[in-house]
Amino acid sequence: MSTTKTLAEPVIRPEFVNENISDAHTGDVAVQLSIIEKIWNINGVRKAVILLGLVGLWQGYTVGFDVEPLMFPSFVFSLKTLITDLFQGDLIWKVWFSIKVLIYGYGAGMAIAAVLVLWGTSSRLGGDFIAMATAMFNPLPSIAMLPLAMLWFGLGTSSLVFVLVHAVLWAVALNTHSGFKNVSTTLRMIGENYGLKGVPFVVKILVPAALPSIMTGMKVGWAFAWRTLIGAELVFGASSGSGGLGWYIFESSQNIETEGVFAGLFMVILIGITIENLLFRNIELRTVARWGMQR
Q: Rounded to two decimals, what is the model's pTM?
């Protein structure tokens, strides 16, 4: 006896046809934003709101709790002191002195870091040197090098530049070298197929691919250099009676002008915010963000 298996008939789902197109819920994929939402999507607006919120907390605390101005002056009082010293005093020249020294030290540190990274990229010995040197000197606070700087270079700009170079060099070199090592083999092979070697290979292949790491090193080096400069100027101000923004803070503290100390600290913060948002942020928007390497 032969058995025949009957295959089940395939299930055919019924067709649903919508004859009335007006019933179809179609529309634009993009949602039209309101004016408030468009304004809130601006990066600078959100940061300004955060800054104003912190200022409001500062002012509200000092006024609401009737805090002694000698211990903790209000924001309005400190801002008045800052504006007065900027336009009627010599604070503007002290700020310029600090920025000028910072440019010298930061530029020198970046140049030396570039040379070290080029050596580390082209030589195994250079790579080992960067790894060993950063492990030795990167944890060392730059301000700890100040006594040696004063002994070797005396009281002056040269000593400040020396400690700034130490603050910038190792952070930039470490992040840049790590970024170069993380560049994919595919990109390296593309550069080699085009016949790129040496400096052209680094500039056209490694630098664009490792730019997020390079920018991180530059921002970390800038932060280290700025805080080191203010701390070093406090010492130089106490020793030589002159200096920049750090000396202004030291002088205000010695004269028990707490509002001057807060005005100097506020100026330090303001310069840091300006450099971060006007310089580094614009570089990132025009490079890594445009290239799709950063969200």
A: 0.81
